[in-house]
Design a protein that fits this description.
Radius of gyration of chain A: 35 Å
Strand order of the largest sheet of chain A: 1-2
Number of domains of chain B: 1
Mean pLDDT of chain A: 90
Number of helices of chain B: 2
Oligomer: heterodimer
Low-confidence stretches of chain B: 76-81
Largest interface: A-B, 54 and 52 residues
Structural class of chain B: mainly alpha
Largest sheet of chain B: none
Mean pLDDT of chain B: 79
Helix content of chain B: 55-70%
Distance between the termini of chain B: 48 Å
Number of helices of chain A: 24
Shape of chain B: flat
Number of strands of chain A: 3
Order of helices and strands of chain A: HHHEEHHHHHHHHHHHHHHHHHHEHHH
Shape of chain A: elongated
């Protein structure tokens, strides 16, 4: 009994990290077993956790590392991280890339470690491990574009991680070790540093450009993991550390609208989906900022559902890219017949993200909207509602239409592996399951839910909204066709002017070095002839015998020998001076 | 053909809108936090107008600021690529 209890107490994140290590060394078949087995084991470990559990080990200077601290909030995130690790691994069963599998497992394990961490040091350790492991999911695509994007991604995350670390240093050196809410007091330096560090990972504009820059460049299978973890861990951190921070309400609203507007312009399939991550995370950030029980529930529920449908959408988009080798909407079109199942799964995810009734998005988004309304924030509610219109417009309508419907193009379609279908079936099933049975999720939320999503009023409103959006989409369809253009974002600042600044600085430094080097050469060249023959400067006393006279530059001892008379003179002089000195004194 | 299909889709959506509108008038007892939650067909109008606003904002306003050619970042943009 005792043994069984300690076994089940095992940290689910460690299971995935150990599995990731094993995956590096095992042959392909065994790795596939681990890819399914480890997330299942981790899920079992997650379900064995009870709110209130804590585990810790002593660390230096009397600090306790609380590596496991469970409450209802961390548990709901841990459950969904376990589920998506399983689905993502099933989706990637065919890849035969030990490095990528290991990175994905570390990434999922690190996310579990962060949400289950009880103290700041454990928290930052796992937080940083996310940035590192996820970078390999981008680099593993091995194209120059992906390598460059991966470097930019890593640099931005190192900046964010260091801001967070600085804030955590202030906290820990002040004797506060536990990860707790910082709102309620007067914001100090640590508050702002931690908020900025978390804001980078939550992709709050203008710190969001790493996401839309790097995620579309990731591998097809890595994209499923990327879209699920980093931003949602940040949402967890915002709910845990900054509940009710007013600034987050408006940051969230701006994110929600910003994402959908850029998505309307976007041509790259996965970049469009990435803009919708920003938009959806905006809902959660706003929910965390509102900070009432209902809004916090909404933010946690929306993160949960978002991971399901967004990973499903990335799976669908990945399947299209895998099958066709194309990633731009201008190249795609008319795939409905050729990829019927993918189209259906994709549209289930699209309806879910738009919050259509009986899908996962409906039960969580409406919680946040009602949370805003109940808190007396009409502007917030109406702007988030508007973002919902944009979500339906650009994913369920535009992205779906331009990929699967529209004009039939002559595109060759490769068969996609069966495991991809299995993962998409799983994602679609969960999308509908939580949509139909909301209490499955509601019962696990941090606070008791007294909310009924399925009233006739709500459902009719949503159908009206969807119909209204559809009519405008249909009328303006010609205007919505994409072009072979890209839209610049705030990454422009570090990809253009900052890059130019670096180039100019390097050039100036190089020029100074070159100039200095040339002057040194000049001095060297000017002075070496003078020292080429040191004998030139010696006074020549003797004359070498004529018969032996060698070439003028060759040393000849006779040439420099003192004459005998000079030696005698010196001796007499020294003798006289010595005698005079002794005699006089 | 395109024209006909277009019309058909619009007619079907028009009929559905009318049905939903009827459903709202007959069966829904509005309850809401703000006055617009109680307006008839508010969500329909919001969908129409909101969608127009978003398309206008993106395709007319934001587009002129942010759109560039695809090789924008390739021309001497980064030397680590």
């Amino acid at each position: 009994m005792e043994v069984a209890a300690t076994m089940l107490d095992f940290h689910p994140g460690f299971i995935l990290i150990i599995a990731g290590l094993l995956a590096c060394f095992l042959p392909n078949r065994a790795r596939q077993v681990i890819m399914v087995g480890a997330p299942l084991l981790a899920l079992a470990a997650v379900f064995s956790l009870e709110p209130g559990m804590t585990r810790s080990v002593p660390f230096i200077n009397g600090i306790e590392l609380v590596w496991l601290k469970v409450d209802k909030l961390s548990l709901v995130f841990a459950i969904i991280f376990g589920i998506v690790a399983l689905l993502g691994n099933i989706y990637s069963l065919h890849i035969n890339q030990a490095g990528e599998t290991a990175a994905a497992m570390f990434y999922a394990g690190g996310s579990l470690g962060t949400v289950l961490a009880g103290d700041w040091l454990t928290f930052i350790f796992f937080w940083e491990s996310l940035a590192i492991s996820s970078t390999f999911l981008i680099w593993n695509k091995k194209e120059p574009q992906a390598i460059a994007a991966g470097f930019r991604y890593l640099l931005v995350h190192m900046l964010g991680g260091n801001l967070l670390l600085a804030g955590i240093f202030l906290k820990v050196s002040g004797g506060e070790f536990a990860v707790t809410a910082l709102t309620g007091g007067i914001p100090d330096a640590a508050y702002w540093l931690i908020l900025l560090g978390v804001a980078v990972n939550a992709a709050i504009p203008p710190l969001h450009a790493w996401l839309t820059d790097a995620y579309p460049e990731g591998t097809i299978t890595g994209g499923v993991f990327l879209c699920s973890f980093t931003t949602k861990v940040a949402v967890y951190a915002l709910i845990r550390i900054f509940p009710g921070a007013q600034i987050l309400v408006w940051a969230g609203v701006i994110m929600a609208i910003y994402g959908v507007i850029f998505a309307v312009l976007e041509n790259d399939v996965r970049r469009l989906l990435s803009y919708h991550i920003i938009s959806q995370v905006g809902f959660m950030v706003a929910g965390a900022g509102i900070g009432t029980e209902m809004a916090i529930n909404g933010a946690a529920a929306h993160a949960f559902c978002h991971i399901i449908y967004k990973s499903l959408l990335f799976m669908g988009a990945g399947a299209v890219i895998y099958a066709t080798g194309l990633r731009k909407l201008t190249q795609l079109g008319g795939l409905f017949r050729k990829m019927l199942l993918v189209a259906i799964f994709f549209e289930i995810g699209a309806f879910a993200i738009a919050g259509v009734p009986y899908t996962a998005g409906f039960i969580s988004k409406s919680l946040i909207l009602s949370g805003a309304a109940a808190n007396g924030m009409p502007t917030v509610e109406i702007l988030l509602y508007l973002a919902g219109v944009g979500t339906f417009l650009s994913i369920a309508l535009k992205l779906f239409y331009l990929t699967f419907c529209g004009e039939e193009k002559d595109i060759e379609v490769k068969r996609i592996p069966k495991n991809m279908y299995v993962a998409m079936v799983g994602g679609s099933f969960l999308c509908i399951l939580f949509g139909v049975l909301p209490d499955l999720l509601y019962s696990r939320l941090p606070f008791v839910v007294a909310y009924q999503p399925y009233t006739l009023d709500h459902v009719v409103s949503m159908i009206q909204l969807v119909l209204g959006t559809f009519v405008i989409f249909w009328v303006f369809l010609p205007k919505l066709h994409p072009h072979d253009l890209i839209s610049i974002d705030t990454d422009w600042f570090y990809r253009k002017p900052f890059a130019a600044l670096v180039r100019v600085t390097v050039k100036v430094v190089c020029n100074i070095r070159d100039w200095f080097g040339e002057r040194c050469w000049d001095i060297l060249h000017g002075t070496t002839p003078l020292f080429a023959n040191p004998l030139k400067w010696c006074y020549q006393y003797g004359v070498a015998p004529k018969a032996q006279k060698p070439a003028p530059d060759v040393y000849h001892e006779d040439k420099y020998r003192f004459p005998l008379g000079l030696t005698v003179l010196m001796s007499v002089l020294v003798f006289s001076v010595t005698v005079a000195y002794i005699w006089l004194y | 053909m395109m024209k006909d299909g277009n019309k058909k889709v619009l007619i079907i959506s028009g009929v559905m809108m009318a049905l939903v509108f009827l459903l709202e008038i007959l069966f829904v007892h509005p309850h809401g936090y703000f006055w617009w939650h109680e307006l008839l067909a508010f969500d329909l109008l919001f969908g129409l107008v909101g969608c127009l606003v978003l398309i206008f904002a993106a395709k007319v306003v934001v587009r002129t600021i942010v759109e560039r050619n695809e090789d924008y970042y390739d021309g001497g943009g980064s030397d680590d690529a």
